[in-house]
Amino acid sequence: MTVLQVGTLKPSLTQTLERRHRAIGLPDTDRDDFLAEHGEAVTAIVTSGRFGVSADLMAKLPNLGAIVNFGVGYDTTDVDAARERGILVSNTPDVLTDCVADTAVGLFLDVIRGFSAADRFVRAGSWPAEGNFPLTHQAGNRRVGILGLGRIGSAIAHRLTAFGCTISYHNRRPVEGSPHTYRADLVEMAREVDVLVVAAAGGQSTSGLVSREVLTALGPQGYLVNIARGSVIDEEALVELLLEGKLAGAGLDVFEHEPKVPPALFGLDNVVLLPHLGSGTVETRGAMEDLTLANLDSFLHSGTVLNPVP
Ligand code: 8YV
Fold this sequence. Notes:
Elements: E1 2-5, H1 11-21, E2 24-25, H2 31-38, E3 42-48, H3 55-59, E4 66-70, H4 79-85, E5 88-90, H5 97-113, H6 115-123, H7 126-130, E6 143-147, H8 151-162, E7 166-170, E8 181-182, H9 186-192, E9 195-198, H10 212-218, E10 223-226, H11 235-243, E11 249-252, E12 271-273, H12 282-302
Parallel strand pairs: 1-2, 1-3, 3-4, 4-5, 6-7, 6-9, 7-8, 9-10, 10-11, 11-12
Helix pairs in contact: 5-8, 9-10
Bound molecules: 2-keto-D-gluconic acid (8YV).
């Protein structure tokens, strides 16, 4: 039984996998030779949302039983192919909800109040030279639309409710028992809100969901916050509309081609750019590591995982 690591993982996770399970890493080169030698022995993979497992790789691992994903998002793994082959896929839900929701609120405040831009203003010596920083806008008591009222979306709604915001949301279906207003039509919701917060899962079903039409409906007074996946938004349209002043601003933790960020955004003070750090705290990444190892142990001991993806 061999555990295979796909992609670069948190160093302490790699150390534990090597120590406890003698895990081996999938090399970047000469993969076919490597798989010819080790492929049959591999029963479990540990990977992360940045890398994932393709159907092609699964086909070369005839005894693979589980793909254990470090992270809640698993859009880089071909889950349909895994299901067809009877391979379990697990993720790390719940433990990162609070940190990712905090990041969304941080972006929400920053993009509306201009804190990062104001920080640059102070550091550049512009305060004594130019006088007061230009006025920004109020963040509390705004109308916020959340795309994806799952665990993270609900935690964002909870936080922004405390800021006096009115929350509406768009999902495929209404969430039973939710106190927030359901909007079946995303374009209509975007038209009605001041801020659109994207918290939907990535993958094919949500690819390009925040289209040019949705962004145009959000309009020149509207702000966009994305802590989900870059693929959910038509990034080209987003950049164009921001450059043309057809959106008030955007707070982005995720991008379509990470770690590449469209350079056209670098000069815009109404855009806040973060390097996909939503879950990136010592506490949360530690909890994700523990849950990843618990899912792997569960599979190796009982053939089941604790957090199977739907
Ligand atoms: C991680 C994430 O940065 O959980 C997710 O889906 O996007 C983040 O928590 C990522 O999974 C680590 O590679």
